[in-house]
């Protein structure tokens, strides 16, 4: 549905977007920003072939994918309301993250989620979720089923924010699936790749340590 896709280098303007996306978001993103500032990296995005770089610099605008330029397919919900279905690249994003995890033995993927509190996440009994104070994150290994990671990417995408990071260190979790801020920060500082939601939730921007 997304057509033929290719990675495009976004240079310094892409790095500025990543920095802005991470700034002041939560404990994890603050530490990720420190990792980005401390190490050289390359920023890119997965986009339909032929899209100009100038268009890709408009990071907050939707309409990146041709399928979303046509009249949207409207889905009727049980409560009588309706929802316009939007095509996105979550399947491709999850596949990319898993493939990159597999290049580094022991690497893990951590996603953040602004929507629930830790108490609410515990009530949902989400097996990948863990808490840091009242913040909610999810932890995956390369052996995780892609559908679970796709679900986490969707849950964590608030349109204006959504981060997934590949780290060489995983935070220690107790039986209650709670980690300390220090353990979370240590994991974030080991990040070698991260993605930020972009283009009104249609796509994502990648920072990769070089």
Protein described:
- The chain is an alpha+beta fold and 210 residues long.
- It has one domain.
- It has 7 helices and 10 strands.
- The strands form 2 sheets. Strands 1-2-10-9-8-5-7-6 form an 8-stranded antiparallel beta sheet, with helices on both faces. The protein has a two-stranded antiparallel sheet with strand order 3-4.
- A hairpin with a 4-residue loop joins strand 9 and strand 10.
- Helix 2 runs parallel beside helix 7 and helix 4 packs across helix 6.
Shape: globular
Q: What is the count of DSSP helices, taking H or I runs of 4+ residues?
A: 7
Determine the mean pLDDT: 92
- First and last CA, distance: 32 Å
Oligomer: single chain
**Order of strands across the widest beta sheet?**
1-2-10-9-8-5-7-6
Integer tally of domains: 1
What is the H-and-E element order? EHHEHEEHEHEEHEHEE
Low-confidence stretches: none
